[in-house]
Every structure is written in structure tokens, then in C-alpha cells.
Amino acid sequence: MRMPRLTAFLTATSVIASVLAASAGEVHVLNWKGYGADEPWAVEAFEKATGNKVINDFFNSEQEMLTKIRTNPGLYDVVMINAAFNDQAMAEKLIQPIDVSKLSNYANISPDKASSPMLVHDGKVYGVPWVWGLTALAINEKSFDKPPTSIAEMWNAAHKGRVVIRDDAVEAVQFGAIATGQNINDIKDMEAVKAKLTSLMPQIKTFWSSENDWNQMVASNQIDIGTYWSGSADRAKTHFKLPVSLVIPQEGAVAWLDAFSIPAGSKNVEGAEAFINYMIDPKFYVEWVTKVGAPVSANTKAVEALPEDAFNRKVMGDPEVAKRIQFQAPITDKQREAYLALWQQLKVDVK
Amino acid sequence: MAAQGTSRSGLSSALPLLAPAYLWLTAAIFLPLSAMVFFSFMTDLPLSGKPWAFTLGNYAAFFSQSLYLTLLLASLRLGLEVTLWCVIIGYPAAYVLAKVLKGRSREAIFLLVILPFWSNGLVRIFSWAMVLREGGILDTALNAVLPFKINIDLMYSYPAVIIGLVHSYVPYMVLTCYLTLQAIDDSLIEAGRSLGASRLQVLKRVIIPLSMPGLVAGAALIFVPVVGSFMEPRILGGRTGTFYGTIIEDQFVAVFNWPLGAALSFILLAVVLVILAVASPVLKRAA
């Protein structure tokens, strides 16, 4: 019953979007809402420094982002793409190679991220690494004397009805892969993942979908443990003063890398380069972390600019952690649909 | 024949009055809905810029997995339960409003019924979340009054979904029943009483049959949106909050598979229409 409105809305936005075709001096940015690039103070600082005007547009899923750049060629100048989707965007010729010599901050990007095969194809850079983070566990400190070290804590009967997991098929399946000791990008034994997740279901209180859900449940002491994003756990602790701490289990955690790309047909490549360079600048990053809370910058100089004991520097920069985490690789549409089918089945079975 | 004549001239003079509403409905409802029908037969969205073809696969998907049917049945059950509770709660309230209260007090009570409409649906659902959870308002209040300790944690459960939905939809039942109850001539009730019918008999033989159109209209107004509801189950239902509506929402929002989402929606629409069509003769006879 709500679809007509959705369609009308979509048509309206795409009409408006094509009317507002980019003119020189404007940088059209496509990103998640509330994810750094649309911070008012950042936009203001960038506009003052370069004279470009920033126009933000947002997406709610990676599929929507791809659709927007497919159907609006020439509209966007900068798009934020999860590295696991960069491949697909490049194969469809939606994004163009970036001349990184124009980005003064690019030299400080940590070499393993800058050379990621997900972003560099045939020696050409299709994505500038921006920030990375983990989908790990977080605990309610009130429920633990000392933090757990194993992912098995999620299955501990003591937490029955006080465990949460995100309502996301890919994340759930990859979490199951880690719990069964498999490679998240090459799951050999799907049955084991399914069995493991099936046994987790009775533990679950609810499926969270936003940071706000998680924080509210901790604030009202309704949960003990759950999957959570590293940046969000940091924000919950430092910004909202909640008793939350991140646990990177010994079995490992899912890591993701977000990068900026320039769509093919961008009308303001120069402005786009300036914007990307600003986004990976240490000054912007430190301010973002301090004012709002953020994931870990891919720029080593930016991370070094943080205080010594900052979470993003101390915990996330720990070489022991680096050994345990697995970066998400591209997923085919077929896999995604299979994951969703599995996840929906699990959710129906537990009803 | 005379009646036909008046109705024709009535139509022509009514046209300027009807046109804005129908033009608006055509533009805002009919066209997007037709586009959705079109999408539901496609392999991929034409908006996505990828090649697409016509297919029945999206409808076949419904039958290929038991999960969709299970969820559809769960949603229909939810619709029935919520409608039933709305009747139980809403009908007596409507009766009191129509037949017992008069003047100022009626206006005041009426206002209280309509008041929830003035707040946003999401706000209402989130306030339920504060009331129902462990250590929430209900839990704290009851434990403050009662001499023994009880533990109330209704949040993230099936009853929480029912409570939230009944609260959202009960005003529809009150309003539709109020209109038909108010139209019942009091002298009919008095006649029944004076001919020796008990209060219960008057209720069963006079009031309920005469107010049946309002009950049916209210039930239809509630049942149809509840079957497709997704926001309330998702927020209040927790682990048990997966319903047909939430699965459709996933297709649109999470995986961007509009064709499948559209097909699932039209299957729901068809099922609801069949239910209403089957129920209507029965209900008409009752009325």
C-alpha cells in the first residue's frame, strides 16, 4: 500500500536530480547519510578553501547507489563505494580511473589499502581508500566482570534473550562463517553456517537495524552482547557515554573498506579530486573523530594525528588485531540472494 | 425513469466537483500502481540500467518457497486478531459515545479517540516501546503499586505487536461504528424494550444488526492495512517480528529487488480481495 508513494517519490527525485544537472564549481557527492561527507562544518570548510559548492545526495543500499549512478550519468562527481562493490562498478564502466598524483594526501594512505586488488585494476586506481572498520561484537559492560574473548559468548545460555544481531543477510552469514572457522569470502560449508545460526536464534532478543536501536537497548539495560560496528561502539562509549565496549573475538571479525570513486562522465573532475583529497586529510579526520566519532582512516598520518590512547589508534591499529580480521571481498548477486533466502528462512523458523 | 434522469443531470453538475479528486487519484495512485504491476513482471528494474525481460518468475518465487506462504498466513492471522480486538474494544466505546453520552462530555471523549491521529505513527510505536519494555513505564508502575515483584517484559514479542497495532487502528472502528450507531432511532430500542425484549435481546436483534455496516466497514479498514503492516512488527516484534510486510519491505529497501517486492505485494492484494469478496455476501446477509 505504500509503494505508490515510493515510486512517486523516486520519479520526483530523479526528475529533480536531472534538472539540477551539475554545473562547473559544483561537486555532487553520493554517500550514506550522516557519514562524514555531509557534515555541515566539513562542507563549509571545503567550500571556503576551494570555492566549489558541495551538493550531497544519499543512498540507502549499495544497490540503490549503483542504480543512481547508472541512471544519472554525468550527475555525480564523487561517489562513496564499499570496496567490495568497486569491482562491479568498474566492470560496468560506471567509474573512471583516478589520477592520484593530484591528491596530495594519497601518498600517506597505508600501502596495503592503497594497493588493494579491489580498488586497483591494471595499475589504475578506481577507488581512493577512505576509512575502514569492523563488524565485531560489543558488550554491555554492566553484564560482564571481564570482557569475553570468544565469539562463542553469543551462544552462552546465560545471555539467552539478551543477544542482538543486525538484520542483514550478508553480515549474518559472514558472522556465521567466522563462528564456524571459515573464510568469509569463500564459505565452503554453508550447512554448518546455517546450523550455527539456527542455534543462535533462540538467544536473540531482536534484530537491530540502526545504531540508535543498539544504544537504546544498552541504555535501558536490555541486552548483554551483540554484533556491532567498531565505529559505532566507539561513538556509543565516547560520545553517548554508554557502558559499551568492543570485543574483537579471537576467531576474527569482518572488516570493510570504504573508498571514494569518481563516476564516469563527471563534469567536475578537478572539484572531485579536491573533495576526495579533503576527505582523506588528517585535519578533517581528527575533527570528524572528535566531534562525531568515525571509523579508522586509511590515511596513516590521519590516524597518527589522533591521541595516543584513541580507540581508532590503540585498538584498531594493534597488529594482533590486523592478523585476525578478514576483509569483505565482492559478492555476486546470486550469492546475495542465496544469503537473503537463508536469512529469511532462519527468521521465519524462529517465529 | 425519472430517477435515472435526475441522476444523469446530477452527474454532469457533479463533474466539476469530482474531477479534482479523481484526477489526483489517477495521477498519484493509479499511474504508480500500474507501473508497479509492470515491474512485477520484469526480471530487473528498467531504472537499474541493466537489460531486462518479461517473466513470471517473481510470482513463481512465491510458490517455490514455503516461507512466503507461512508468512502470509501469519500476517492474515495478525490481521484477524487485531480486527477482533478492535471490535471488542472499539464497539462498546462507540456505543457509549453514540447512545449514552451527550453534549460536552461526548465531545471530550470523542476528542480523546481522535487525538492519537494527530501524532505521527512512528512516535506512537516508539512510545509503546518505552512502556512495554522490562524496566519500562508499565513494569515500573506495576511494581510500585503491587506488593509482590512481577517482571513485565512485553517488548519484542507477538503481544507487543498486537498492542501497538490495536492502538493504532482502534479509532477507525470507533468512528465507523459510532456513525451507524448514532443513526439508529432510539424509538426502535424503546419499542423492543416495551415489547418485552431483554437488554441482551435488544442488543442482539436490534442494535448489532442495524450497526453491522459500520462494523464491516471498520473491520475492512483495519484488516487490510494490518495484513501488510511492516513498521510496527519490525519495531515491536523483535525476533518474532518477521511478517509478510517486512519481507516486502526488505525487497524494496535492503536488496533493491523491486520486481519481487511488487509481485509479493500484488499477491497480497489478490488474497485480500478474495477474502473480502468471499466475506461480503456473508456479511451482507448478516447486515
TrEMBL record, chain B:
The chain crosses the membrane at residues 21-41, 82-101, 108-131, 156-181, 202-224, 260-283. Its main location: membrane. It is found in: Cell membrane. CDD domains: TM_PBP2. SUPFAM superfamilies: MetI-like. InterPro entries: MetI-like, MetI-like_sf. This is ABC transporter permease. Belongs to the binding-protein-dependent transport system permease family. CysTW subfamily. Keywords: Cell membrane, Membrane, Transmembrane, Transmembrane helix, Transport. Coiled coil: none annotated. Residues 72-279 form the ABC transmembrane type-1 domain. It is a multi-pass membrane protein. Gene3D superfamilies: MetI-like.
